[in-house]
Write a structure and sequence with these properties.
There is one protein chain. The protein has four helices and seven strands. It is α+β, with helices and mostly antiparallel strands and about 200 residues long. The protein has a single domain, classed as Peptide Deformylase (Alpha-Beta Complex). The strands form two sheets. It has a five-stranded antiparallel β-sheet with strand order 2-3-4-5-6, with helices on both faces. The chain has a two-stranded parallel ribbon with strand order 1-7. The longest helix is centred in the C-terminal third of the chain and has 15 residues. It is globular and about 40 Å long. About 30% of the residues are buried. Removes the formyl group from the N-terminal Met of newly synthesized proteins. Requires at least a dipeptide for an efficient rate of reaction. N-terminal L-methionine is a prerequisite for activity but the enzyme has broad specificity at other positions. This is Peptide deformylase. Pfam families: Pep_deformylase.
Length: about 200
């Protein structure tokens, strides 16, 4: 089932997600719905707070990045084959050089900015079958994980840009909160002004 994506300004996007157990109600269905919602919106990642669930869960499928001809064959193959569910994730380490990449977010349509993140992460998480894993990721996969991880920590990519850039996108963010954007996917706007 395709779920509505929560728009910028909704308080759920600012909450730190709660850890869940394998007994979380309808967990498999929630995960399946999140993948379906992400694919419908042409995203590569989706976190539970973006579908109004304040829990530590996010899903990633970097297949679309695997089409980038500027990448090596090895990088393309890695991205085409990376699909993962992260439950109760905890980033243990971020290392390497910071590098910039133009990021966007399904909760913040029509806004894209360069964000600088470390190139390599070590993360501990549970998969959809509640097997505990600790893995190291780098490059674009690490970046997508960091972006989605920020969501379960109540952080948005717009928090990571310069004050000047924040000023420049202020109007766009206001438009999202007022329901003046029309993404081609289902969205819940928190602060829609009602017609009188």
């Amino acid at each position: 089932m395709i779920l509505p994506i929560v728009g910028y300004g909704d308080p759920v996007l600012r909450k730190v997600g709660e850890e869940i157990t394998a007994e979380y109600p309808n967990l498999k269905e929630t995960i399946a719905n999140m993948y379906e919602t992400m694919y419908n919106a042409y995203g590569v990642g989706l976190a539970a707070p973006q579908v109004a669930l304040s829990i530590r869960l996010f899903v990633i499928d970097t297949t679309p990045f695997g089409e980038d001809e500027d990448l090596s064959n090895e990088e393309q193959d890695e991205l085409k084959n990376f699909k993962r569910t992260f439950i109760n994730a905890k980033i243990l380490m971020e290392e390497g050089e910071e590098w910039g990449f133009n990021e966007g977010c399904l909760s913040i349509p029509e806004v894209r900015e360069d964000v600088f993140r470390k190139e390599k992460i070590t993360i501990e998480y549970y998969d959809e079958d509640f097997n505990k894993r600790t893995e190291v990721f780098d490059g674009l996969v690490a970046r997508v994980i960091q972006h989605e991880y920020d969501h379960i920590e109540g952080v948005l990519f717009t928090d990571l840009i310069s004050s000047l850039k924040k000023q420049l996108i202020k109007k766009k963010l206001k438009n999202i909160m007022e329901g003046k954007v029309r993404p081609d996917y289902k969205m819940n706007i928190f602060n829609v002004k009602r017609n009188r």
